[in-house]
Specification:
The complex is a heterodimer of chains A (612) and B (397). Chain A is mostly helical. Chain A has 18 helices and no strands. In chain A, helix 2 packs antiparallel against helix 14 (467-495), helix 4 packs antiparallel against helix 5 (160-188) and helix 5 runs antiparallel to helix 16 (566-582). Chain B has two domains: 35-77 and 92-244, Immunoglobulin-like, CATH 2.60.40; 248-393, Orthogonal Bundle (Cytochrome Bc1 Complex, Chain D, domain 2), CATH 1.10.760. In chain B, a hairpin with a 4-residue loop joins strand 2 and strand 3. Classes of the chains: A mainly alpha (612), B alpha+beta (397). At the A-B interface, helix 3, helix 7, helix 8, helix 9 and helix 10 of A face helix 1, helix 2, helix 3, strand 7 and strand 8 of B.
């Protein structure tokens, strides 16, 4: 019975008191707490990355500006890209994976709760490691793409590139551990009756994302290991003077890098596909097409990497193949956009804040998709690549796409996560300011790029016609930045109000809305059973209306994993290992060996500690 | 709070129009307003690309209007109230879904056909006619151009004859760079371990901007260059001038045929007190402002103080300049830019500064102060000595 999802036994009288305090967060293995940790950390890094972007924009606000030195500019644009991709958008998605996947599939936690805690701590330390480079005035400075052979010891002798290479390795460990965890969770822990084709679409997109992570991250891991060997041990994988090939790096990087784009956008597709039906009061249009187009996008995503390399002159056959495979991706992407519009059409639209952001996502993502088709054509790309046209394109996809969708998700699931409704007026103000600021910042970049402004330049001369558009972009970026101040104000204001959000404020369709807001530690007192794609709507229809407010129940008799600090110690060991590698030239191998021993010991303790 | 929402709602409805107006304003423009634009091609290669690009633009624009229009329509048409009856629970429509899979596929085919044709055309160097081969070497952070046919080398200012196909064979000296003259041809990356090629045939004379387009280190932003497309006759004269620099350079400037006029006309020009005063203050930040890149006249005539040319030549030889720079276009050094005709170039520092006596002197005195990270050494010259060297270099045409 679908109703069992919501029929919490009211027999348990005592209200379970959950552990709070700092220690409970440090030792937590609860996917919901870990999700909140991911969210808070990633949002902090998002603000740092945003501030970096504002500094870049101020520098470019006028021609021949000297606000930033060339070296500072290069460090900031490298850290902006690296931060936004690895420390903001990916972990913000991870927040939703963590918080929502178990709730949506009717599970009490992820498959490996301690591994989950380990993933978070490694992510946090990876982010701190990367940003610690600023303290040594040695922030990475060769771009988030780190093209060889500029990254070789000869041309980048400082620690800048070492911080970048090792920082990404740390973050890769976190991503891979999390991907194994969610993959296993989704395969094994779905509620009774939740067949694959009944999974919420967000879970489907998350599942595809985990597959992409599992297949793409090993490639960058190998590429980074080779670069580490070049830099630390004097090998020549990418060093032409020793017979190596810098082009090898580009292939390896983009075999990872293009799937990475879908790692950043597929969770956003999932979020929007959950929100649109709820606020249209109508099921997702073409569920199966949405699932299979997601799979198709991910599959094709591994066959298009060289479209980042048309300017290297690969020859007409390779250019043709990668051009056509890239254009093919537009077809499943188009299917998604049309099905979203089909979801809205014929509905009864409830224009709440999450819906604004979800619709804004579609409108902006269309623009990013169309400019993507433009440079899928290699001749056109030869003019556009490495110019601001491409900067415009991927910000329409990454910001207009991912960030709009993640923001929509934040407004939508906020009441579930924190038991409080965010203010609607402030939410809509946030939306309009963000939409206007975003377009003012990035739309002129199409034109300034076509008019010949390259990327990654710390300044530009007068007389090339770049000034006016850059001024507009800088003004827009300040508006865009300030829109998040409204969000922060909204969050602070909301946190001071009573936690009185109902369990199901939006008339949701998925299982999490059957639980109290916020859910109890064990999620489901009784494991739910599912009979359709929109189990909660089905239940509500059967009952002829809304559901009763779920009662908080005792956790007596519910098995939960014990908290543990060993994942944290293991993550610290990982950090120590990479710090030792960074210092290798000074300290030799023994600190690394010590860190390895510590890691082994902490993993043993974690494994043999009683689970509950 | 609802009033807030209303206020922002009104602003929001105006936003698309603002964006559109902005777009239209930026779309137009002439090559004088946007001298580095990809939208004003001046050679066959760039024209071919422009054709494909405009195909993608029209299709994209059509799709943009239709799809964004459909989105806005459904948003306004299906706005509901909380107490409205539940709408019809549609789960999909196979026919519709097949249609909106097929139509994008057809549109992509319309883009793919000219794309593939242009891919093959742009890789194929036009047959027939006489192809001028030029070797391009990208350096941190300047460009070297060699003409094997004529046995000469120059830097940062590429001269090509209009109407003749130019084939560039390109390599990098150090790290990856990307050669880009938007009005002639698209980008082609250059590598230290392989040769890449690019071709174009300029169809109108003029002075065009180009820039490195692959991030290549701290001064990537200052790795510009220029292309002077000239008549074949003018180009011949240019090449002969470069070949003439092979003559023994021992004779003091003034006896070199190309220099005499310049030196004679400028020898009388006094060094103004204002410039001296400015330099004597020894300010850390030199009073150089990079000049606007277009609307720059041919280089200002050299105005060295009398007698300083010979002094400058001596310093150039004695103080180590010759370790990196050749003043003989037929004998490239390959380390620093060849200076055989530096006096006739419009810019110094890879497109950074207008080539004037003052700018050149300040550059020679302390290149790091002007372009931090540049690989040119500070030779510890006094400003007077730097002026002398600049005066000498400005006579090299």
């Amino acid at each position: 019975m679908a109703t069992s999802a919501v029929s919490h036994s009211a027999a348990h009288g005592a209200i379970h008191v959950e552990k709070t305090g700092l220690w409970s967060w440090i030792t937590t293995v609860d996917h919901k707490k870990i999700g909140i940790l991911y969210g808070a950390t990633a949002f902090t890094f998002f603000l740092i990355g945003g501030l970096e972007a504002l500094l870049l924009r101020i520098q470019l606000g006028t021609a021949e500006n000297t606000f930033l030195t060339p070296e500072a500019y290069n460090q900031l644009f490298t850290m902006h890209g690296t931060t936004m991709i690895f420390l903001a958008v990916m972990p913000l998605s991870a927040m939703f994976f963590n918080y929502l996947i178990p709730l949506m599939i009717g599970a009490r936690d992820v498959a490996f709760p301690r591994l989950n805690a380990f993933s978070y701590w490694v992510f946090l330390f990876g982010g701190l490691f990367l940003n610690a480079s600023f303290l040594f005035n040695a922030a990475p400075n060769a771009g988030w793409f780190g093209y060889a052979n500029l990254t070789s010891k000869q041309y980048s002798p400082g620690l800048n590139i070492d911080f970048w290479v090792l920082g990404l390795q740390i973050l890769g460990i976190s991503s891979l551990a999390a991907a194994v965890n969610f993959f296993t969770t989704i395969i094994n822990m779905r509620a009774k009756g939740m067949k694959l084709m009944r999974m919420p679409i967000f879970v489907w997109m998350s599942f595809i994302t985990q597959v992409l992570l599992l297949l793409a991250f090993p490639v960058i891991t190998v590429a980074l290991i080779l670069l580490t060997f070049d830099r630390v041990f004097g090998t020549h994988f990418y060093v032409p003077a020793g017979g190596g090939d810098p082009l090898l790096w580009q292939h390896l990087f983009w075999i990872f890098g293009h799937p990475e784009v879908y790692i950043l956008i597929l969770p956003a597709f999932g979020i929007v596909s959950e929100i649109l039906p709820v606020f249209s009061r109508k099921p997702l249009f073409g569920y199966a097409a949405m699932v299979f187009s997601g799979i198709f996008i991910a599959f094709l995503g591994f066959g298009v990497w060289s479209h980042h390399m048309f300017a290297t002159g690969m020859g007409p056959i390779a250019d043709t193949v990668f051009s056509l495979s890239t254009m093919l991706i537009a077809i499943p992407t188009g299917v998604k956009i049309f099905n979203w519009i089909g979801t809205v059409a014929g509905g009864s639209l409830q224009m709440r804040t999450p819906m604004y952001f979800a619709l804004g996502f579609i409108a902006m993502f269309i623009i990013g998709g169309l400019s993507g088709v433009m440079h899928a054509s290699p001749p056109a790309d030869l003019q556009q690549t490495d110019t601001y046209f491409v900067v415009a394109h991927f910000h329409y996809v990454m910001f207009g796409g991912s960030i709009f969708a993640l923001t929509a998700g934040a407004y939508y699931w906020w009441p579930k996560m924190f038991g409080r409704m965010l203010n609607e007026g402030l939410g809509k103000a946030h939306f309009w300011l963000m939409l206007i600021g975003f377009n003012l910042t990035f739309f002129p970049m199409h034109f300034v790029g076509l008019h010949g402004m390259p990327r990654r330049v710390y300044t530009y001369p007068d007389g090339l016609g770049f000034e006016l558009m850059n001024q507009i972009e800088t003004a827009g970026s300040l508006l865009l930045g300030s829109s998040f101040l409204i969000f922060i104000y909204n969050v602070i204001r909301t946190s001071r109000r009573p936690a009185d959000a109902p369990a199901d404020p939006w008339n949701g369709a998925t299982l999490e809305w059957a639980l109290p807001s916020p859910p109890q530690e064990f999620n489901f007192a009784v494991e739910p059973e599912v009979h359709s794609r929109d189990p909660l709507w089905e239940t509500k229809r059967e009952r002829g209306g809304t559901l009763p407010e779920p009662a908080r129940v005792s956790s007596a008799g519910i098995h939960l994993p014990n908290p543990s600090y060993w994942p944290l110690i293991a993550a610290l060991s990982v950090l120590a290992f990479f710090v030792a590698l960074l210092m290798f030239a000074h300290t030799g191998p023994w600190p690394m060996v010590a860190a390895g021993v510590m890691l082994f010991f902490s993993v043993c303790k974690w494994a043999f500690e009683p689970a509950g | 709070m609802t009033s807030w929402a209303r206020a922002f709602g009104r602003t929001g409805r105006v936003a698309p129009f603002l964006v559109l107006a902005l777009a239209l304003a930026a779309c137009g423009g002439t090559s004088a307003e946007y001298p580095q634009s990809t939208l004003h091609p001046k050679a066959d290669f760039a024209r071919m690309i422009d054709g494909v690009f405009m195909t993608t633009v029209w299709w994209s624009l059509a799709v943009f209007i239709l799809v964004e229009g459909a989105l806005l329509y459904v948003i306004f048409r299906y706005r509901g109230k909380p107490d409205d009856a539940e709408p019809n629970q549609v789960h999909g429509n196979t026919t519709l879904e097949i249609i909106w899979t097929a139509i994008p596929a057809l549109i992509l085919a319309m883009i793919a056909v000219p794309t593939v044709r242009a891919i093959f055309e742009t890789y194929e160097v036009p047959k027939g006619g006489d192809v001028l081969e030029i070797e391009v070497v990208g350096h941190q952070w300047w460009w070297e151009f060699r003409y094997p046919e004529y046995g000469v080398t120059t830097a940062n200012e590429l001269h090509v004859p209009v109407g003749r196909t130019v084939l560039l064979r390109m390599k990098a000296y150090d790290v990856l760079h990307s050669f880009w003259v938007p009005q002639f041809a698209a980008k082609r990356d250059v590598f230290p371990n392989r040769t890449t090629t690019l071709w174009f045939r300029a169809d109108s004379t003029g002075y065009y901007s180009g820039q490195c387009a692959e991030f290549c280190g701290v001064q990537h932003g200052r790795m510009a260059f220029h292309v002077a497309a000239t008549s074949p006759e003018e180009f011949d004269g240019y090449v002969k001038g470069l070949q003439a620099t092979a003559m023994p350079a021992a004779a003091p400037a003034g006896t070199a045929p190309a220099d005499s006029a310049a030196v004679r006309t400028t020898a009388a020009a006094p060094v103004t007190t204002t410039t001296l005063a400015a330099t004597q203050q020894g300010s850390q930040t030199p009073a150089v402002r990079p000049a606007p890149r277009d609307s720059v006249p041919p280089p200002a005539p050299a105005t060295p103080a009398a007698g300083s040319v010979a002094e400058g030549q001596k310093l150039f030889a004695q103080r180590g300049c010759v370790a990196c720079h050749s003043i003989n276009a037929t004998k490239p050094m390959g380390i620093g830019p060849n200076l055989a005709n530096v006096g006739s170039r419009r810019y110094i520092g890879a497109g950074m500064l207008q080539n004037t006596d003052e700018n050149l002197a300040l550059w020679i005195k302390d290149p790091q102060a002007i372009k931090h990270g540049v690989l040119m050494a500070n030779l510890g010259l006094t400003i007077e000595q730097a002026r002398s060297v600049a005066g000498y270099l400005r006579t090299l045409k």
